[in-house]
Amino acid sequence: MNALKTLVIGMGILIVAGIAVIAVTIVRRNADAPIAAQDKPAVSLAQSGVPESRSGAPLASFGVRDIAVPVGSEIVSISAADGRIILELQDAEQVTRILLLDPATGAALGGWRLVESETGRGMTPPSMNR
């Protein structure tokens, strides 16, 4: 009977010690949490909408760029292909223009005005300034 009492008391001490270790661990992790939260983002870049390069590294911010479009133009569509941004516009005269942009600089790399032609031959991309 004496051995049973000793065993119960010993197990009680182990339970109390185990709970103390768990409590100390929780307190230490919570004390370190604000520092860790400042070092790491709360969400991944993919969840936050920040664009990533093909290697997975975040792309550098480039600020706001102005892109000149003809007065009265409306954006019909925007798409990306082969590292370029393709902007389809319809101007005030209902002429469709396709503008090819460099996504890093916002600079126009070239463009086309789609005009009606009776023969449909000899189509060349005219200057965007016409």
Describe this structure in words.
With 130 residues, this protein is α+β, with helices and mostly antiparallel strands. Among the domains are: 2-40; 65-114. It has two helices and four strands, in the order H-H-E-E-E-E. It has a four-stranded antiparallel β-sheet with strand order 1-2-3-4, with no helix packed on it. A hairpin with a 2-residue loop joins strand 1 and strand 2 (84-90). The longest helix is centred in the N-terminal third of the chain and has 38 residues, at 2-39. The radius of gyration is 33 Å and the shape is rod-shaped. Residues 40-48 have low confidence and may be disordered.
Shape: rod-shaped
Order of helices and strands: HHEEEE
Identify low-pLDDT runs: 40-48
What order do the strands of the largest sheet run in, or round the barrel if closed?
1-2-3-4
Oligomeric state as shown? single chain
Give a count of the beta strands, DSSP E runs of length 2 or more: 4
Class inferred from helices and paired strands? alpha+beta
**Total helical segments:** 2
Helix content: 25-40%
Distance from first to last alpha carbon? 105 Å
Using only CA atoms, what is the Rg?
Answer: 33 Å
Beta-strand proportion: 15-25%
Q: What's the main sheet like?
A: 4 strands, antiparallel
Question: Kindly state the mean pLDDT as a whole number?
Answer: 77
